[in-house]
Amino acid sequence: MTAYDLHVTEADPARVVTVLPGSGYTAMGPLLWYARSALRDLGWTVRTLEWAARPSFGSARETYAEILDGRGAPGEDALHLVVAKSLGTLAMPMAVRLGLPGVWLTPVLTSEQAPDVRETAAELDEDHLLIGGTADPLWDGELADGSEADVLEVEDADHSLEVPGTRAENLAILDEVVSAIEEFAGSFGEE
Question: So which domain of life are we looking at (predicted)?
């Protein structure tokens, strides 16, 4: 298993979000930075994974099992939301088995190394939000639309959910994505 740190910002113990970054897109990237900031501002306890080195798919899956279902995972009484980007979406099958709602940013739907993610995504229900861009080779908008999950598809956006060369448009996309995450998290109720 690849070494990692799990940073926790304590707030409401009854509402916990676990943030799982990509292998190259860390939690410092704007999508995850602002998503976790928004959820923290809404009172959620935020747990953020930080990789010490780029993990393999196998070691990432082992780490997700430990973080989501192992020692130190939120208690059964807590609402536990997963927000994952790219490699982090390898946690989707486990999250679904555990009954955890999730926000899946740029999921690896077409990766040959993750057929279980594709199969799981096709069966997602309304407790999940899929977000991807039409210019991302790992995105499958048709598959996402065929699920019962909420879907936000960003026209012409790449795997970073950006449209190259359009700073103002990219800021608008960032705002749209973070707003969708806030609204989705709010659908589970606030105390």
Answer: Bacteria
